[in-house]
Specification:
With 264 residues, the protein is mainly β. It contains one helix and 19 strands.
Length: 264
């Protein structure tokens, strides 16, 4: 069957199982030919254990198809192109060096020339490094003039899903989880230390349950319950901060004027 090596094509349907498409060719056979199956080309390796498989073009999408050796059985979808003046690209005059990807789910990713990087999920969960960008897309105004318009998440996902749970799991057994309700949990494998260091202090567990809190001053507001022994090095003062104060290591018993018994 005589067929041009390159031609425009429109997606008729999607063949997810074979990572392919059924397409209608433009200007071939007078437009009377039924749709043809074609494979979809990808970047990088592609074999039984490796590959990069972006989302397949949706029905109605326009692209360029190649037919190696002019054989209609060898069709390959090379790339997608804009079917009209509308697109989801944030590129505009003066906006350069931007890598942007908008997903079917409404999630989007962007990395710009200044290093600002953001990945936002459809529920609004956002991972941001740098300054939050305000991406645009191209639409047409009332005079059919192409223009860049804001493209916020509310337009990408008109009906957002509920909050998504998050988790980071390490092969050692360490994990960081965040539930859909916002409950957070950090898990460290037995025997492994856990340390949080901040300006002037730290919180550390040696991996066996011994917790060390280091700080210049520690203020606890509210009731404090201790189930176990309390060992203090230094003075202990009750009533600190206002009102009567009692030094628990230096006070006298009013009945007989004796100091407290050491160890009590």
């Amino acid at each position: 069957m005589d067929i041009p090596p390159l031609t425009f094509a429109t997606v008729a349907s999607v063949d997810e199982d074979n990572y392919g498409l059924n397409v209608i060719l433009h200007g071939v056979f007078g437009g009377q030919m039924a749709s043809l199956p074609v494979k979809v080309g990808t970047d990088g390796p592609r074999d039984g254990v490796r590959g990069n498989y972006p989302e397949l073009p949706a029905p109605g999408g326009l692209g360029i198809v190649a037919f190696p050796r002019g054989d209609h059985r060898n069709g390959v979808w090379i790339c997608s192109i804009d079917p009209n003046l509308l697109d989801a690209s944030p590129n505009a005059p003066g906006v350069r060096g931007v890598s942007h990807r908008a997903h079917y789910s409404g999630a989007w990713y962007q990395h710009d020339a200044e290093g600002n990087t953001v990945f936002q999920l459809p529920d609004g969960t956002t991972l941001l490094a740098g300054v939050m960008p305000a991406p645009t897309r191209h639409t047409l105004d009332g005079n059919q003039v192409r223009q860049a318009t804001p493209y916020p998440l509310s337009e990408r996902v008109p009906s957002p899903p509920g909050a998504l749970p998050l988790s980071l799991v390490h092969p050692s057994g360490a994990s960081l989880t965040l539930s859909a309700a916002g409950a957070a949990a950090v898990t460290v494998p037995p025997g492994q230390p856990f340390t949080v260091t901040f300006g002037g202090g730290s919180i550390a567990d040696d991996g066996t349950g011994n917790l060390n809190l280091t700080s210049t001053n520690i203020t606890l507001t509210g009731n404090v319950a201790i189930d176990g022994n309390l060992v203090v090095t230094g003075g202990v003062t009750a009533g600190f901060g206002g009102g009567d104060q009692i030094g628990l290591q230096t006070h006298k018993h009013p009945a007989n004027g004796s100091p407290p018994t050491p160890g009590t």
